[in-house]
Design a protein that fits this description.
The complex is a heterodimer of chains A (about 240) and B (about 575).
Chain A: H1 3-12, E1 17-19, H2 20-33, H3 36-45, H4 50-61, H5 67-80, H6 95-105, H7 110-128, H8 137-147, H9 161-178, H10 181-187, H11 202-208, H12 214-218
Chain B: E1 4-15, H1 19-30, E2 34-38, E3 90-91, H2 126-130, H3 140-154, H4 179-190, E4 196-197, H5 232-242, E5 246-250, E6 253-260, E7 266-273, E8 279-289, H6 293-302, E9 327-334, E10 355-357, E11 372-378, H7 408-416, E12 420-427, E13 436-444, E14 450-455, H8 460-479, E15 483-484, E16 533-535, H9 550-569
Parallel strand pairs in B: 1-2, 1-8, 2-5, 3-14, 8-16
Antiparallel strand pairs in B: 4-10, 6-7, 7-8, 9-12, 9-15, 10-11, 11-12, 13-14
Helix pairs in contact in B: 1-5, 1-9, 3-9, 4-8
The chains are: A mainly alpha (about 240), B alpha/beta (about 575).
Chain lengths: ~240, ~575
């Protein structure tokens, strides 16, 4: 079964009209007869619609940066955010791959990225007689030091290209790292998994100098009753 | 091309499967009627693993959650946003209305904020109160029994507060406030602004054995795979099918018009199947429009016939008029006391605010007639594309340098994580006849159906209200010891008032009333002109309140459904 086709059938429901009954059996079928390719693509494509899938595949097939440019991006990203134990850095976070993809997904960024990479090599060749990626860490820092600060009173779009480029690379590197598995571990974010919220821990309340109002808390869910079916009296008072 | 006509005659055709259409489906099918639901988008079930986005991590996507394909980010469960491919809408020059359309079973209920507020007694009688707009032909007491039943059927958390214009209901207990919400409560107290637990339709407790209980991932916008939040599919349409109801769903079916006979009565609808791009006809005794306020108006206006030359139900020329959305403005501040947080715990909570501020002001002393409520956001949320952008921009508020690179960026990200609190003011706009949508005779969608053209401008009342919001936000940020993140928008920017439509609470285009000359439906949402056509979306709203519209859409749809059942029984329609 062609994966795209089967996905489309699954998502669109196939026929223009179906009764609830058909839907239900169709749904059971979804669960039971899904072939390997679809299971994989479900994992791979995180709930995309067929149209979104098409666009993703198209973007993935395009190449924005050549090998040298990808290496230069990688080299710059680890200067911007040096790897640190135990949660690695931009390479482990696949930051270069993200930058490649976003340059295609939001094509308005591409000229700044492509032009900035050229500027970087030109600058490095002029000052040190070598391409940026091959320069020493000290030399790389000397270049970055010239473009990593800017007058915050002047809007970014009015700044020189190399300033815009560095700011964009810094943003993409930081966002890329902190949206990766290693970066989220570094940040310490504990969510995105089933749990039972029962308020802010006491040590955190103490740290920030706030407290729960007992009257307020008395109205909140007693989590030991969350599995009990709610019933009310006629005035809307919860009985169970 | 011959139009294909089905031989089956349904009792009711329902156009649209969102809040209004879902409720009508449930009530009418439960009553044993033979129902056809016609939905312009594909089938969707929040439990389907193929389309699910809930609990996905940003790194599962090459764009890490960026909003390139979906305007509210790629996890948002809305297929269709401000733009729908091949289905344009146009604007009168100098105006700007934003129209969100979700093309999927369940419609916009799959991603909405689930803020489920009853309208209060004053909200139905705006004109009596301040002379603006129009009174509804019904009052709170007419709707209360339906709000009560709705609370129990769908589930909504909240608390009994005894506030005059924010009626209590049958609530599930709310979740405890998060850390930033405690700061908000304290800050608001200093300005005597009330704060009460949020009222949202998520199950903090079981209400039946069919739906799951909230597991606090904070992702209701992704539509809950265990049905612990409300969506029209999971809570209304699927249960209607499950209990044996006769519900036939036509997906990918774009309704062109309501068809009528020689007497001018509705005979059904014609629709374009998106699968084969052919036109079909369905027949029914009753047609219920629930396509959303503007889409239902569009269908009526496009349903022209000898008997209804001005469009169906439009002898009053009111269809499309009185379009209004909630007002909206926002602000955010960094709170130094919320910096350097421990990340030792999960504070995702429910997908929305655990606390909010209902309207507290006395409009007789203000230069705008209607109120607004404040929604609060903040906390240590899931990082997605854009997280850490301008990582140390807030350094400027503390006399530190902005920019640079190196290890310090890690420290900056952590220092500021969870330290920002933001507010959304959501208020009531006055309904005006001169704010409207109409058919643009020069433009059709890819199905050949003439599209809507919008013409909507804010009045000074909305702008004055936005100024009040900004002054309030500034005061709240100050009360919390915070620093505003951006400059306060001034008069030249209408005080940050968002474009109409952007709050996605558009209502009023087919308003109800006792007078057939100034309204489109009667108080049971039946067209004055055609007795077997009903409207159960927000088009029938005479006025939006300083509330959100969904809970009232559903209460009214239930009420209208009861009336339809009665009228069919009595053979009046």
């Amino acid at each position: 079964m062609d994966r795209r086709k089967s996905l489309q059938t699954l998502i669109l429901g196939g026929a223009a009209a179906s009764t609830g009954l058909v839907f239900k059996s169709c749904k059971t079928e979804n669960g039971e007869t899904i072939d390997e390719a679809i299971v994989e693509s479900t994992e791979k494509y995180f709930g995309r619609t067929p149209k979104e899938l098409d666009r993703l595949e198209k973007l993935k097939a395009e190449q924005l940066f050549n090998e040298h440019e990808m290496e230069t991006i990688a080299a710059l990203s680890v200067v911007i955010l040096p790897p640190k134990e135990p949660h690695g850095g931009p390479i482990e976070a696949e930051v270069p791959e993200l930058i490649e993809f976003m340059g295609k997904d939001i094509p308005e960024m591409a000229p700044t990225l492509l032009g900035g990479l050229m500027w970087l090599d030109h600058k490095s060749n002029t000052e040190f007689g070598t391409e940026f990626k091959s320069a020493t860490l000290e030399q790389k820092k000397q270049i970055c030091d010239q473009i990593c600060w800017h007058d915050t009173e002047i809007p970014m779009e009015d700044q020189a290209l190399e300033i815009q480029f560095f700011a964009l690379m810094r943003n993409l590197t930081v966002t890329g790292y902190y949206t990766s598995k290693v970066g989220i571990a570094d940040l310490g974010y504990k969510g995105n998994m089933p749990n039972v919220w029962d308020g802010v821990p006491q040590d955190v309340l103490d740290q920030h100098g706030v407290a729960y109002d007992p009257e307020w808390i008395a109205k909140c869910i007693d989590q030991s009753t969350r599995g009990t079916i709610a019933t009310w009296d006629d005035d809307g008072n919860l009985l169970t | 091309m011959q139009i294909k006509e089905s031989s089956e005659i349904y009792d009711v055709i329902i156009v649209g499967s969102g809040a209004g259409g879902g409720m009508a489906t449930k009530q009418l099918a439960d009553a044993g009627l033979n129902v056809a639901v016609v939905e312009a988008g594909p089938y969707f079930d929040p439990a389907d693993p193929v389309t699910r986005t809930q609990l996905k991590w940003p790194y599962e996507s090459p764009r890490r959650g960026a909003g390139t394909d979906r305007a509210f980010g790629e996890w948002d469960m809305s297929w269709g946003d401000w733009e729908v491919d091949g289905e344009p809408y146009t604007q009168e020059e100098g105006t700007n209305f934003k129209w969100w359309r979700a093309r999927m079973l369940g419609g916009r209920t799959n991603h909405w904020g689930r803020i489920s507020l009853r309208f209060g007694p004053k909200d139905f009688k705006g004109k009596t109160r301040d002379g603006h707009g129009e009174d509804w032909p019904i009052g709170y007491d007419d709707v209360k029994p339906y709000y009560d039943k709705l609370d129990k059927l769908i589930g909504v958390f909240g608390t009994k507060e005894g506030r005059e214009n924010d009626p209590d209901g049958f609530f599930l207990p709310p979740p405890k406030p998060r850390l930033h919400e405690l700061f908000y409560i304290n800050g608001a107290k200093k300005s005597n602004i009330p704060v009460i637990p949020g009222r949202l339709s998520m199950l903090t407790k079981k209400i039946n054995n069919e739906r799951g209980v909230c597991f606090y991932c904070g992702q209701c916008g992704r539509s809950c795979s265990v049905y612990a939040d409300f969506s029209a599919g999971s809570c209304l349409i699927f249960p209607a099918q499950k209990s044996g109801g006769k519900v036939k769903i036509f997906v990918n079916s774009m309704v062109r018009e309501v068809t009528t006979n020689e007497e001018g009565k509705a005979t059904g609808v014609s629709y374009i199947s998106k699968d084969d791009r052919k036109e079909y006809k369905l027949r029914a005794k009753v047609v219920v429009l629930a396509a959303s306020a503007c889409s239902s108006a569009r269908i009526l206006l496009n349903s022209k016939s000898k008997q209804h030359p001005n469009g169906l139900g439009n002898s009053s020329n009111v269809v499309g008029k009185y379009l209004h959305d909630s007002t909206g403005a926002g602000a955010a501040g960094i709170i130094p006391d919320l910096m350097n947080r421990k990340t030792s715990y999960n504070e995702d909570g429910v997908g929305g605010m655990h606390v909010y501020s209902p309207w507290w002001g006395d409009n007789s002393k203000l230069n705008f007639p209607r109120g607004y409520h404040i929604e609060v956001w903040g906390g240590m949320g899931q990082p997605n594309y854009g997280f850490g952008w301008d990582a140390n921009a807030m350094n400027k508020h503390f006399g530190l340098k902005v920019g640079g690179y190196g290890d310090s960026l890690r420290d900056d990200v952590k220092k500021y994580y969870g330290s920002v609190i933001g507010f959304g003011g959501r208020g009531e706009a006055i309904a005006y006849k001169h704010n409207y949508c109409e058919i643009d005779p020069t433009t059709v969608d890819q199905f050949g159906i003439p599209v809507l053209k919008f013409n909507y401008n804010h009045s000074d009342f909305e702008i004055n209200q936005a100024k009040h919001m900004q002054d309030t936000f500034e005061e709240l940020i100050h009360n919390m010891g915070g620093i505003p993140l951006s400059e306060k928008p001034g008069k030249d920017q209408d005080y940050g008032l968002l474009a109409p439509g952007q709050i996605i609470h558009e209502v009023g285009t087919t308003r109800m009333g006792d007078d057939a000359k100034t309204s489109v439906t009667n108080k049971f949402q039946q067209l004055h002109d055609v007795d077997n056509v009903f409207i159960v979306d927000a088009g029938v709203f005479v006025s939006q309140a300083d509330k959100n519209c969904t809970w009232t859409i559903m209460a009214l749809s239930w009420r209208a459904s009861d009336y339809i059942i009665e009228q069919l029984k009595a053979q009046n329609i």
